[in-house]
C-alpha cells in the first residue's frame, strides 16, 4: 500500500512517545512510503530542540539523526512543485490547517497516496475529506 507519512508521525519513529509503537505497525503494512521534502528538516528541528533542552545528549542526537537520514534514504521524497503549492493553497482555503500541514497533505495527494498517516486531528480530517484513507498514530 502506498503510504504517505507526515513529519509529526515520522518523528515518532525516532523520538519515543505515544504512538511510536503504532507507527511501527503501520509502517509494516506499507509497500511504498513517501514523505515531503520538508519533513527531514522539520524532524531535525525537533531533534535539535530536544538536544538544546538536554532531553537528548549530543551522542543520542547524532545517532537519532543518522537513523532518520537512513530511513529517509529508503523513502520516496515528494517535491514542493507548483502543483503541490496550488493544492496546499486550496487546502488552506477549505480546511483549518497550518501551512506545513497543508503542504504535507498536498504532497500526499500529488503522490497519489492510498493512506495518509498523521498525528494531527485537523490534518487527518482534511485528508479524509480529500479522499485519502487515514491512519492516526
Layout of helices and strands:
Blueprint: E1 2-5, H1 7-10, H2 20-28, E2 32-36, H3 39-52, H4 58-73, E3 76-78, H5 82-94, H6 99-111, E4 115-118, H7 121-129, E5 133-136
Parallel strand pairs: 1-2, 1-4, 2-3, 4-5
Describe this structure in words.
The protein has 137 residues and is of the alpha/beta class. The chain has helices at 7-10, 20-28, 39-52, 58-73, 82-94, 99-111, 121-129, and strands spanning 2-5, 32-36, 76-78, 115-118, 133-136. It has one domain (2-136): Rossmann fold (3-Layer(aba) Sandwich), CATH 3.40.50. 57% of the residues lie in helices and 15% in strands. The chain starts with a strand and ends with a strand. The model has no long low-confidence stretch (mean pLDDT 96).
Amino acid at each position: 500500500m502506498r503510504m504517505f507519512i507526515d513529519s509529526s508521525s515520522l518523528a515518532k519513529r525516532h523520538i519515543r512517545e505515544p504512538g511510536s509503537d503504532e507507527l511501527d505497525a503501520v509502517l509494516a503494512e506499507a509497500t511504498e512510503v513517501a514523505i515531503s521534502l520538508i519533513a527531514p528538516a522539520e524532524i531535525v528541528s525537533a531533534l535539535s530542540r530536544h538536544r538544546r533542552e538536554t532531553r537528548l545528549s549530543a551522542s543520542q542526537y547524532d545517532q537519532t539523526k543518522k537513523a532518520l537520514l537512513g530511513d529517509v534514504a529508503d523513502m520516496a521524497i515528494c517535491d514542493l512543485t507548483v502543483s503541490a503549492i496550488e493544492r496546499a493553497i486550496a487546502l488552506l482555503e477549505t480546511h483549518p490547517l497550518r501551512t506545513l500541514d497543508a503542504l504535507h497533505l498536498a504532497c500526499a495527494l500529488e503522490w497519489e497516496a492510498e493512506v495518509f498517516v498523521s498525528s494531527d486531528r485537523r490534518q487527518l480530517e482534511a485528508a479524509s475529506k480529500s479522499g485519502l484513507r487515514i491512519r492516526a498514530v
